[in-house]
Amino acid sequence: MSSAIKLTVGCLFFITAQYPIELRSHLQNNFNHYLDNPRSVAAQTFLEDEHDCCGIVNYSDYAYLNISEEPDSCYRNISDVARVVKRDGCAKNMENHYMVRMNDIGLICLLVGSFEVSASFFFDEMNQ
């Protein structure tokens, strides 16, 4: 098996197998420290604003922390006086967001691998 194919298979395996598990674990760990760490609050607020989400699995995660109402970052304003809670959890939204980017990286790995194999055949033909 050529090094290009090994590299491509390795890239694709790493991208698809590891990332969602690690992402969810890091998000959950940060969320578990929500009440005792101001940096966790800031990080969660940023995620909820940036990825249009609330909590890790969904908005009800805040009830497990004994917080009676979701923070403002969990709401989407639909007018000056009305707002709606964001129902999607941040883990799902971030996994979707970053898996698109990881698929792009996988495609680049495939292209590089294909180029290397093509170049190898071309230069082998030239040297004969």
TrEMBL record:
Tree of life domain: Eukaryota
Record-level GO cellular component terms: membrane
Record carries keyword Transmembrane helix: yes
Compartments (UniProt record): Membrane
Keywords, sorted A to Z: Membrane, Transmembrane, Transmembrane helix
Gene3D superfamilies the record matches: Tetraspanin
Protein topology in the membrane: Multi-pass membrane protein
Name of the protein described by the UniProt record: Tetraspannin
Organism: Oryctes borbonicus
